[in-house]
């Protein structure tokens, strides 16, 4: 059995795979909220994946680390990631700059150095970044932005030196690859005219489509990516990276990445099933993934969480379909 431990508000990242594309995975997969992680003490075989460490408080991390230690001592469970030993975003980026892998630095707002390379931007260490942050081009602009942090909703702000250059075609690129145990697979190559690459535009050039297909099919950076995961002491997650002057540059490793965002609709611009298969097959290949050992309390909580997710994605599917229909009528 695969026990996926996640923050209670972010248990949706595997949902589209489980509900639509690989329903066979559900027999071997259990969502576990951190507040229920203690139930794992009663399981003797399977694999535990710890995620969302960046979203936990220090007390929650300490409790999870204690449970992880108990599981290591008293059960035969395989564990991927560690609540406190796996590096979070800030510490990983500091390490990668210190060992010469990354050419950009990160700072805490109260620990700035004079020799910062501009432009920089400010982001939270926790969670995902959905909107393009403003670039700050000098120290007065940075100081003003830091002064505005008081009262903001950033839990652990960090100052990041911007890095990245567009390709010959004018597009910036961001690559993403998953690690699931011993498996590395390429998930996407997003392209944008903006330095802040979140998703590719809906209408891609034919050459871009072929480039993305080649990246996914050949998985060219698997060895280099695995080395970064090992430095981070993470056995599960998604790494986001780019290339600058031919060198791989890492932005982050997300411990609870969304595999597929949207449920299938008749208007999908690509077939998501192969991506679901990559994820599901890698999960099922984990040691003890198909050991039929769980607890009734874990199963009940999982079914309750999945039922809520099912309702959510049914509504999302309806909204996406209606939106496309209305656009076509215009």
Written account of the structure:
The chain has 330 residues and is an alpha/beta fold. It folds into three domains: 2-86 and 272-329, no CATH class; 105-161, Dna Ligase, domain 1 (2-Layer Sandwich), CATH 3.30.1490; 172-254, D-amino Acid Aminotransferase, Chain A, domain 1. The protein has helices at 15-21, 58-74, 89-98, 139-147, 206-218, 222-232, 273-284, 296-329; strands at residues 2-6, 29-33, 47-50, 78-80, 106-107, 120-124, 157-161, 172-180, 183-192, 236-244, 247-254. Strand 1 (2-6), helix 1 (15-21) and strand 2 form a beta-alpha-beta unit. The longest helix has 34 residues, at 296-329. It is globular.
Outline of this structure?
This protein has helices at residues 15-21, 58-74, 89-98, 139-147, 206-218, 222-232, 273-284, 296-329; strands spanning 2-6, 29-33, 47-50, 78-80, 106-107, 120-124, 157-161, 172-180, 183-192, 236-244, 247-254.
For the structure shown, list the relevant keywords:
330 residues; Dna Ligase, domain 1; D-amino Acid Aminotransferase, Chain A, domain 1; four-stranded parallel beta sheet; four-stranded antiparallel beta sheet; 20% strand
**Average pLDDT across residues?**
94
What distance lies between the first and last C-alpha atoms, to the nearest angstrom?
Answer: 48 Å
Secondary-structure element series: EHEEHEHEEHEEEHHEEHH
Write down the domain tally.
3
What amount of the residues lies in strands?
15-25%
What percent of residues adopt helix (DSSP H or I)?
A: 25-40%
Strand order of the largest sheet: 2-1-3-4
Main sheet characteristics: 4 strands, parallel
Rg is 21 Å
Name the poorly predicted regions.
none
Give the helix/strand class: alpha/beta
Number of helices: 8
Shape: globular
What is the number of strand segments? 11
């Amino acid at each position: 059995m695969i026990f996926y431990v996640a923050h209670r508000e972010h248990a949706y990242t595997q949902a589209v795979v489980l509900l639509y594309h690989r329903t066979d995975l559900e027999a071997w997969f259990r969502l576990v909220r951190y507040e229920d992680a203690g139930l794992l003490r009663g399981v003797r075989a399977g694999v535990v994946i710890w995620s969302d460490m960046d979203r936990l408080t220090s007390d929650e991390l300490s409790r999870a680390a204690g449970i992880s230690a108990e599981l290591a001592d008293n059960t035969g469970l395989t564990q991927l990631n560690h609540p406190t030993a796996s590096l979070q975003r800030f510490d990983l980026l500091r390490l990668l700059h210190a060992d010469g892998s990354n050419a950009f630095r990160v700072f805490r707002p109260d620990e700035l150095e004079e020799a910062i390379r501009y432009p920089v931007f400010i982001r939270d260490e926790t969670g995902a970044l959905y909107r393009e942050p403003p670039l700050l081009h000098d120290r007065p602009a940075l100081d003003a932005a830091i002064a505005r942090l008081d009262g903001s909703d950033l839990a652990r702000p960090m100052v990041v030196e911007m890095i990245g250059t567009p390709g010959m075609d004018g597009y910036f690129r961001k690559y993403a690859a998953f690690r699931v145990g011993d498996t590395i697979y390429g998930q996407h190559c997003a392209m944008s005219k903006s330095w802040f690459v979140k998703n590719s535009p809906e209408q891609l050039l034919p050459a871009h489509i072929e480039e993305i297909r080649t990246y996914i099919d050949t998985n060219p950076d698997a060895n280099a990516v695995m080395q970064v995961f090992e430095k981070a002491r993470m056995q599960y997650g998604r790494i986001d990276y780019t290339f600058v002057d031919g060198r791989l540059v890492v932005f982050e490793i997300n411990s609870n990445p969304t595999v597929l965002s949207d449920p299938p609709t008749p208007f999908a611009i690509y077939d998501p099933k192969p991506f679901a298969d990559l994820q599901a097959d890698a999960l099922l290949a984990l040691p003890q993934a198909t050991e039929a050992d769980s607890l009734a309390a874990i199963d009940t909580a999982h079914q309750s969480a999945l039922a809520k997710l099912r309702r959510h994605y049914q509504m999302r599917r309806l909204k996406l379909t209606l939106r496309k229909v209305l656009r076509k009528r215009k």
